Predict the structure.
Amino acid sequence: MMLIDEIKKRSSHVDAAIDELLPVTCPEELYKAARYLVDAGGKRLRPTVLILAAEAVGSDLKSVLPAAVAVELVHNFTLIHDDIMDKDDIRRGMPAVHVKWGEAGAILAGDTLYSKAFEILSKVENEPVRILKCMDVLSKTCTEICEGQWLDMDFETWDQVTELEYIEMVEKKTSVLYAAAAKIGALLGGASDEVAEALSEYGRLIGIGFQMYDDVLDLISPEEVLGKVRGSDLMEGKHTLIIIDAFGKGVNLGIFGKGAATLEETEAAVRTLTECGSLDYVKNLAISYINQGKAKLDVLRDCPEKELLLQIADYMIAREY
């Protein structure tokens, strides 16, 4: 099975459901702003994980589509607000929402996606107790994402961040939404609490690996592939695990927290981080988390959907952006 084809097959259903469940209505500019990043594409990994988890335990795509849309809207809500806080003006190769509609407009667009996610999740046809569990999972996840973002911003004012503190931050900021997607899919598919929790752990672990590798890509991928400024985390003074490891080795990076850098300065910093072994250290740790996540899928019967979930885990550390 070609993973990208299988993702596209399911994401096309998600896209159609977004059109139906989040139409552009009055006030039009608000909904255009809310739909802007959603319509710009994205990999749709989180809704795909949710759908595959449901299919792997015996459900079907159509019955969980509203939940898949809800997870994708939460993801995009976080991107809009992240770009405001990080002052990133480019997202997915386009001007960020706050660049086109202003900060106030972008905040409202993000808030709209957040609230609509729960409204849309409530449209799932399932046992009330399972829908309530899913609401609980998603609401707690949104709180943890905020906690993770706060830690991420807080770290910029710290002189030193430990590896454990970094992992706590990325778990809350990034991996909890993958965990929620997998758990919600399993719950709506009729899985036991034990199986749903194993799927949640799968999502949590591959989500951590995803973010670690994302930090690597921020440094090694060209801007035209990334869709944003290369090395932006470094210039913004973000304590990624690469930086934490490098600083622990006594490495000095002149562009860290500088706000801007030339291409030559960025390339010099990447060479330094490669030579000191920090990039390879984080790559290998990301692979370790991915493998731990894949092992959690042992609770599932062998089926095409399980194989796709395993392939998605591998894709987390094989992608180019």
Q: What stands out?
A: The CA atoms of residues 130 and 136 lie 10 Å apart. The chain has a mean pLDDT of 94. The first helix runs from residue 3 to 21.
